[in-house]
Amino acid sequence: MKKELFGVTTGGKTVYLYTFENKNGMKMTVSDFGAVLTHLWVPGKDGQLVDVVLGYDQLAQYENNNNVYFGATIGRNANRIDQGKFEIDGQVYQVDQNEGENQLHGGFSGYHTRPWLVKEVDELNQKIVFLLFSPDGDQGFPGNLSLEVSYQLTDLNELIISYTGESDKKTVFNPTNHTYFNLNGHANGTILEHLLQLDCSYYTPVKDSKSIPTGEVLPVANTPMDFKQSKKIGRDINQIAEQLQLTGGYDHNYVLDETKQETEAFVHLIGDQTGISLKGYTNLPGVQLYTGNFIEQEAGKNGVNYQKYSGLCLETQFFPDAVNQVNFKSPYIEENVQTVYETSYCFDA
Ligand code: BGC
Predict the structure, then answer these.
(1) What is the pLDDT of residue 152?
(2) Which residues are listed for beta-D-galactose binding in this entry (predicted)?
């Protein structure tokens, strides 16, 4: 493991970058600032390393990472909460409303913009564990929550991200990771020619351009939302279809088939230029496919200007607004019960 100074935050905290390398030369870099993933170098067909995630060079940019959420660990709640309001056991909670009247990705002070503690560096298993304490009332959510996020890079070229949460009151625990992948390389154009296969038969449509779900769970069959068979991401993205027009591309929650085992991949993505492929596994019930529709001239790593569709996110999660939707699995954890979620992305060329 290599530890380098990343910088000093505006709040005066010194933060670092941690780089792990596996036996195949694959490397990941993460920071104790925001528990963000900043770099992921994967060997391509020719053995050359390709950095397949979008990101920034400067700490100050990660401190203002509230539009695009590059590499971000999101908490307490991934995606949106309608009106920032919900009820637990008869008690109404009003949480931060940071996107119009709704909440997006935890509110004004997302976990991705805070310094975390390093709980453990496990050199043998190429793993780092970050720790965050989120007090009762933080972002408006109940309960003192202690949260661990670990990143592990295995010799099988897997990136394993796990989330462990425990709270002294029943609360929402719906973390995700907002990394944008571009398997052709972060600086190498858009993801529109990538081949994507998503093993999901259903998705949750949105009401309008504010992206609160209607509450329905609809089949993808015979719609441009269908990725059951592998297809180019750009193939149907410009179709005149209400759901795609509302969100300017794919920005939808897909439902993982309930019969799927955690050992079966829910997604298979291939970079058309490098041949690098990613397979994803999780024990969470949904995944937000977001094709970077709202990225506009974002100054990123190595002087690259990222654009619309420069990368795509595969955010494993409880469904959007699950706190208010009776049809959706609820994202609560019970008082004093430790809960663990895990998502892994496995790379090959
Ligand atoms: C959401 C998008 C949002 C983006 C922010 C995604 O998870 O689904 O609607 O614009 O995050 O970068």
Answers:
(1) 98
(2) 79-80, 178-180, 251
CA-to-CA distance for 322 and 330, rounded, in angstroms?
A: 6
Residue whose tokens read 């940071």: 98
Bridge partners (DSSP) listed for residue 146: 133, 166
For the annotated binding site, the residues are: 79-80, 178-180, 251
pLDDT at 154: 98
Confidence of residue 28 (pLDDT cuts 50, 70, 90): very high
The residues spanned by each domain of the chain are 2-348
As given in the structure block, the two tokens for residue 248 are 């300017």
* Mean pLDDT, the chain, integer: 98
Residue type, 260: K
Tokens of 16: 């670092």
What is the SS3 assignment for 62?
helix
pLDDT of residue 259: 86
Q: Cα(249) to centroid of ligand 1, in Å?
A: 11
Residue in the structure block whose two tokens are 């792990």: 20
**Which residue out of 174, 206, 290 has the highest number of ligand 1 atoms within 8 Å of its CB and is therefore the one to mutate?**
290
The residue whose CA is least distant from atom 10 of ligand 1 is 294
> Alpha-carbon distance 30 to 151, whole Å?
8
Strands 202-204 and 218-219: antiparallel
Query: 290 C-alpha vs ligand 1 centroid, how far in Å?
Result: 7
For residues 35 and 164, give the distance between their C-alpha atoms in angstroms, rounded to a whole number.
Answer: 14
Q: Which residue has the tokens 């993801």?
A: 191
- Torsion angles phi and psi, residue 149, rounded to 5: -125, 125
pLDDT, tens digit, for every residue of 146-170? 999 999 999 999 999 999 999 999 9
Which of 3.40.50.300, 1.10.10.10, 2.40.240.10, 2.70.98.10 would CATH assign to domain 2-348?
A: 2.70.98.10
Cβ–ligand 1 distance for 102 under 6 Å, the answer no
